[in-house]
# Entry
Amino acid sequence: MKASLLPGEASLGVMGGGQLGRMFVHAAQSLGFRTVVLDPDADSPAGLVAHQHIRSDYLDVAGLTLLAQQCAAITTEFENVPAQALERLAQTRFVAPAGAAVAICQDRVAEKAHFAASAVACAPYAVIVSEADLLAVGDDLLPGILKTATLGYDGKGQVRVRSRAELAAAWSELKQVRCVLEQMLPLALEISVISARNAQGEIVQFPVQQNLHIDGILAVTQVPAPGVSAALQEQALASAARIAASMNYVGVLCVEFFILQDGRLIVNEMAPRPHNSGHYTMNACDLSQFDLQVRAMTGLPLVQPRLHSPTLMLNLLGDLWFSPAEPGVERTPAWDQVLALPGTHLHLYGKTSARPGRKMGHLNITAASAEQAESVARQAAALLGLAMDW
Ligand code: ATP
Ligand code: MG
# Structure
C-alpha cells in the first residue's frame, strides 16, 4: 500500500464477527471508516454493529469476493481464519496481518520454530506425530503439557501429564492429532506484550501486562505489571519486537510470556490480532489496541500509546449470569451497582445468550493509583460474585 487510507473515506473489512471484531469496528467507525464484517453467524457481535455484514463461510468465494469489492483494506479478528482466505483477499486488497504470518501463529510447531529464529527462548518441547515420537520423548519433558498443534484456545486442546502412561492416554484423548509436548515450567507469573507494526517496519508497544488465568481462561489483567522488574519488562518488549519484525508482521500482535520462579523470561505463544489482555487499553491508554489495529492496516501514523492511568481489567464470563442458588435461570448482573464505583468502564459484547465460560464482556477499572484500582476491582468482583482468588 503506497498512501494511507483516509478517515471518513475508505471501507475497512474484518474477517470474523466476535467481540474483537466488534471493538475493531467501533474504533474504525469513530474515525469515520465504513466497516464490513464477514462471519457466518447472523447474530455475531461485530456483524450487529458494522455497516455491512456479509454472512458467509470464511472460504466461500462469493463472500470473499464481495468483501474485497467493498473494502480497501482487510484485517482479521480471530486466529483460526483460514490463511488461504487471507491470501485470496490479498490478491486484490491490502491485508494485514498477512496470511503467512497468521499461519505461523496458528500452528504451535511453526510458532516455536519462529521463536527460535527470533532468538527468544520457549519451553523445552517435542513434536508428537507418531507412536515413535511418543516413545522417543525425553524424561526431562515430564511432567509436561500435551497441546494440540492447532485450534487450541482458553486451555482447550491441552492435557497435563505426569508419566509416560498419562502421556499415551492424553494423546489418545486428543485423537492422536499432531501435538507438542511442553515441559511443565515452574511459573512465577504470566505477562503479555501487545505491539503494532506497520508496513514500513515502524513499531509501537503498550506496556507489559500482568495476567492471571483461572481454569485456563484469562481472568485479570493488571497494568503496570506489579510483579515484573524494569529489566524484565524491557526484555519482554524487545523480544516481542524481534518476533514481530522477523516475520515482517503488519498489524497488532500479542505475545504471551511466562516469568519463571528463577526469574527467566520464556515465550509461550502469540496471537495475530488484538488480545483479551489488551482490553484495558480502551480506557487506560490514549490509544487502544483497536485504534492501532486501524492505523496499522490503513497506513495511518502509528504513534506511541501512553498509559495514563493504572488499571485492572476483570473478564466477565457467562457464569456471572447465573446464581449458584438457581443454576438454570439467567439473570442480569448488578451493573448499576458496579457502575456506581469510581473509574469503572463496562464493555458488553452483545452476545445473545450467556453460557458458563463464555466471554460476555469485560470491566476496566482506572484509578489514580494501582492500589485504588485494585480496591475498586475487589469491590466490583464482590458485587458480581466473581472469584476473588487473586
Ligand atoms: P489462550 O486462551 O491464551 O489461547 P491456550 O489454550 O492457547 O490459551 P496456552 O496459552 O498455551 O493455551 O496455555 C494456557 C495456560 O496454561 C497458560 O496461560 C499457563 O497458565 C499454562 N501453561 C501453558 N503452558 C505451560 C507450561 N509449559 N508450563 C506451565 N504452565 C503452562
Ligand atoms: Mg495462551
About this structure: The radius of gyration is 21 Å. Residues 112 and 122 are 7 Å apart (CA to CA). The first strand starts at residue 11 and ends at 15. Residues 123, 145, 147, 152-156, 182, 184-185, 187, 190, 213, 216, 256, 268-269 surround adenosine-5'-triphosphate (ligand 1) (CB under 6 Å).
